[in-house]
């Protein structure tokens, strides 16, 4: 019998008990791989497998992002849909997970860090005090399932904001907000947005930076039945993205008008 994805992941020994794991995913190809051998990929099984790998002392975060708030559309803690994939949707449906409060960059969270993450009330999206900063302080790792390791790595925007880049700036967005208790009001949040005059475009999911980090052994990479998976420490990504911004004008991450 072939290994399940979780069994394969355990054999790779990337994840340890007590780890904080930020999971980014596109499980379509993984589901196809299971179907090809007459099996069904259970998303709850996948989530529970990850819980087993990190243990009760670990923490899991699945992105449940939605950017409608930027368009003036009200955010509803319980009803605003997830725009970041089937696995994140599955995590959010579970009673043992809960959603953090940010209307743009929320996460479905579980484990030892759940309480601290749910207590976060940052109005900023990426800067100091946000969940992205907590990931760094907690020595979190990114697990990418079915994607290049950095393709969905929103953590890079935290580095951009803390360093300061010429192609982004802080912008405020205001809309109606319904919280977890059903209380409604008008709220304002900030995001470090693209400067459209500079027209920054990431290079194929930050592919040059990823390739450099893979060559240097900073990104672990493997394939399960032809489905890619990547693994990287947030601290290593922070250092390499920071270096690229300060020493290379972000050339391993972005094309933008530099004139």
Main structural class: alpha/beta
Radius of gyration, rounded? 18 Å
How does the major sheet shape up?
Answer: 7 strands, mixed
Q: Number of DSSP helices?
A: 9
Overall helicity: 25-40%
* Secondary structure: number of strands: 12
Average pLDDT, all residues: 97
For the record, give the distance between the C-alpha atoms at the N and C termini, rounded to a whole number.
Answer: 58 Å
Question: Which strand order do you get reading across the main beta sheet?
Answer: 4-5-2-1-6-11-10
| SSE topology string | HEHHEEHEEHHEHEEEHEEHE
* Parts with pLDDT < 50 across at least 5 consecutive residues: none
Residue fraction in strands: 15-25%
Overall spatial form: globular
């Amino acid at each position: 019998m072939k290994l399940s994805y979780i069994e394969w992941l355990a054999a790779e020994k990337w994840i340890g008990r007590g780890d904080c794991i930020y999971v980014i995913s596109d499980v379509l190809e993984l589901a196809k791989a299971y179907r090809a051998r007459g099996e069904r990929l259970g998303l709850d099984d996948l989530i529970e497998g990850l819980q087993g790998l990190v243990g009760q002392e670990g923490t899991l975060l699945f992105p449940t992002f939605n950017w409608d708030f930027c368009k003036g559309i009200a955010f509803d803690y319980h009803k605003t849909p997830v725009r970041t994939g089937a696995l994140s949707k599955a995590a959010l449906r579970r009673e043992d997970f809960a959603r953090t409060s940010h209307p743009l960059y929320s996460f479905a969270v579980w484990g030892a860090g759940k309480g601290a993450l749910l207590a976060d009330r940052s109005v900023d999206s990426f800067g100091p005090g946000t969940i992205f900063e907590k990931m760094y302080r907690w020595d979190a790792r990114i697990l990418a399932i079915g994607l290049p390791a950095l393709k969905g790595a929103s953590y890079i925007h935290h580095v951009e904001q803390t360093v300061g880049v010429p192609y982004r700036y802080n912008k405020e967005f205001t809309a109606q907000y319904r919280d977890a208790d059903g209380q409604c009001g008008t709220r304002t949040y900030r995001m470090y947005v693209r400067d459209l005059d500079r027209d920054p475009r990431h290079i194929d999911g930050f592919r040059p930076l990823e390739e450099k980090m893979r060559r240097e052994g900073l990104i672990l990479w493997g394939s399960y039945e032809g489905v890619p998976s990547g693994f990287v420490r947030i601290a290593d990504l922070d250092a390499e993205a920071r270096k690229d911004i300060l020493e290379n004008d972000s050339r391993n991450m972005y094309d933008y008008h530099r004139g």
